[in-house]
């Protein structure tokens, strides 16, 4: 992917050293397009706007009607045309970067829409049956208007689910359905939020918690909205999934076998990695990384004193009870203790820390069986909501202790919470820039953060170190498995057995992960590709700068402009290195 970027010299003088952009007509036009695009994004994704702290659209849900979907593409096309009319040579370097990013985002938005994603919006890993019940946990309710708007939003749940259903029926008619295996418990996830018990006692519904306030005057209206609107809508949607949709979903699992074929998969690889890499190139990279990491694992196994081969060692890890908690609260307490230990190490590696705090909480029970080991929920200073590392406590015998250190580093700090909170808090930057999220950058940084545990002294125990390598292996195997499934005809069983044979991951984790790769083509490849790029840039800077290399400054530079595509990250790192060397 090519970006029209200012020269490294200009970046040094203006971008890195913070010189102000000149307020020329060309700059103004780009900044106006950014503001226009942000405003449309807020209006068309009102729940996202609410989570970010823009509460103007709290009474709305997304409009997934055919007209609304067409309008989004049309507006992106018009905005791209307006951007093309601006002479990039007249832009100041910072605004030239904004323009390059806007062009990239708009082109990706248009390309993505061509594959009609609205026709396949549901898997057991995502969709309105999961997103809507989790929504209130991402919002603060401090004024009467917040509560009134939320009731209006509850009233709109049936209309949204009807629109989603209509889009899915259009997908069935077009032959565009997800693999059946990825639907798993999706119907159950909807039906569990549409029961008679919840209709009779709305306070038990997961969308009711904002009204669990003593004697709130609007509680009767919330009761009615849940009983008469929300519960029947979820039941109807769940029955549609169970009885009509899932039986007609395709049995094949590869993207190449879908109605959109290999072109869709290549598009997804470009979207998530921000690079033009073929499935074969990514597959071969994965094979090499698997071989390299296996060699490192052999060294760590020797440190444990275990006698036996790799298979015997991983079986030992999966079955020895000392590696597993028996109480969910103990697992959560272990994560929280690790998080506080890591917090104390952060100033050694970073000069800038976010203001927003984070916490650790348990994954909701209704989604845990079909979900991965953990995920991160971004918070909002505007909403008064912290970031959260959300841990899965389902099947504790599948949640080994030796994976806890890299998982905490990845999901909390210095991984997702650190990077995303800093991005949200960027100053002197158009707000549009704070909304960007590129998988290769965000997840590449998360994987790189796991490795920083070495410099924090967190992997002194060889079993913890093996857990780190097992997690790195997990991301390397994704390059092999994802491309294997979607471009090379691999079966689900082959993917599962490959991952079990090359890591200490438990079967529960592996099966959920493989189903995730089937459901989300290309996304899993971005982790390792992004991490390798960051490590490459650090190694280059260390070689060039020698004793002048400052790790804290390097990390702050990588994160200073929020999430950006990898080619732009490389340009920034080169300019930073050149500037430090010159000074």
Brief sketch in words of this structure:
With 583 residues, the chain is mainly alpha-helical. The protein has 24 helices and three strands. It starts with 7 loop residues before the first helix and ends with a helix.
Strand order of the largest sheet: 1-3-2
Poorly predicted regions are 1-23
Helical proportion? Answer: 55-70%
Gyration radius from CA atoms, angstroms: 24 Å
Please count the helical segments: 24
Estimated share of beta-strand residues? under 5%
Mind describing the biggest β-sheet?
A: 3 strands, mixed
Assembly type: single chain
The helix/strand order is HHHHHHHHHHHHHHHEEEHHHHHHHHH
- N-C termini distance: 31 Å
- Derived structural class: mainly alpha
The pLDDT mean sits at 94
The counted number of beta strands is 3
Whole-number count of domains: 3
Mass-distribution shape: globular
Question: What are the defining features of this structure?
Answer:
single chain; 583 residues; mainly alpha; 3 domains; three-stranded mixed beta sheet; 24 helices; 3 strands; disordered N terminus
